[in-house]
Specification:
Length: 283
């Protein structure tokens, strides 16, 4: 009794080499510091004396690091076919974002990022998430010190979908349920991480849930949890619910279309040129 046909290895638009992995780890490490510095720096650290300036410093640094990562990944295999796919998906994601902006966190772009990262892999996912958020910020006028944090967070969000297990074998309902569960949890994680980027801008005197540079880490952690519950829980819930609904309802045809487009593009196939036959001369 023979088994079924072997699973076809899924193509990747960006193959992560050692240099790309190192660049991704570097930008992620700096991003962790950029987001989590209120909890990483002790109360008497000099950084806390410039609590209002620190996010701007990290924002500028993150822009440079994201550019380094994009350049490194491009050198490792982001060819013209992948660039075309990147442009189409980034434009679609940027166009989807304003549809639900300002309405209970209903942002349909997140489900597209989940499915795209799943099909095209973590390397492409990170670049796609970052570029999509950059394009949508230009489209909606949302350019500010928060934009690099949004780019990095969306890069992580989309890259995480590409790191989920079973990219070559898991299909059908089980895959959709896994992607929906990931989208649900990652939507809350995205909102929580982005709260860290704006929380330190609050005036301590204006609210007892704002970041206090003189408070201890446990006290600031309690303030941050209260801040998330008071300001973004409903918004994150709407984003998570929409991601789940769209993934379960539209996931199957969209995954099929993305995989078909990836196979036809043949990202990993080398480009070859055949020598033209010489035109025979009339006798």
């Amino acid at each position: 009794m023979t088994g079924g046909p072997p699973a076809q290895r899924q193509a990747r638009a960006v193959r992560l080499g050692p240099r790309s992995v190192a660049a991704l780890l570097l930008v992620s490490a700096v991003g962790v510091v950029g987001f989590g510095w209120p909890f990483l720096a002790p109360p008497d650290a000099s950084l806390n004396a410039h609590a209002q300036d620190a996010p701007w410093l990290f924002a500028g640094l993150l822009v440079l690091l994201v550019a380094v990562v994009a350049a490194t990944i491009s050198e490792s295999g982001l060819g013209p076919k992948a660039v075309a796919m990147l442009g189409v998906l980034a434009a679609a994601g940027a166009a989807l974002r304003p549809i639900g902006a300002g309405t209970a966190g209903l942002e349909p772009m997140f489900f597209l990022m989940v499915l795209s990262g799943r099909v095209l892999g973590p390397g492409f996912g990170f670049v796609l998430g970052s570029v999509t958020m950059f394009a949508s910020a230009l489209l909606t006028g949302g350019v500010g010190p928060w934009m690099p944090f949004q780019m990095l967070s969306m890069g992580w969000f989309t890259m995480g979908a590409g790191l989920l297990p079973g990219p070559d074998r898991l299909r059908g309902r089980a895959e959709l349920l896994m992607l929906a569960a990931y989208g649900f949890l990652a939507a809350f994680a995205y909102g929580t991480v982005m709260n860290l980027a704006g929380w330190t801008f609050m005036n301590t005197l204006a609210s007892n849930i704002a970041f206090d540079p003189d408070a201890s880490i446990p006290d600031n952690l309690a303030r941050f949890v209260a801040y998330c519950l008071a300001t973004s829980l409903g918004w994150d819930g709407g984003r998570a619910a929409m991601t789940v609904v769209l993934t379960l309802t539209l996931g199957t045809p969209l995954l099929r279309a993305l995989r078909r487009a990836t196979r036809r593009a043949a990202f990993e196939a080398p480009v070859t040129f055949e020598k033209a036959d010489e035109v025979s001369r009339p006798t």
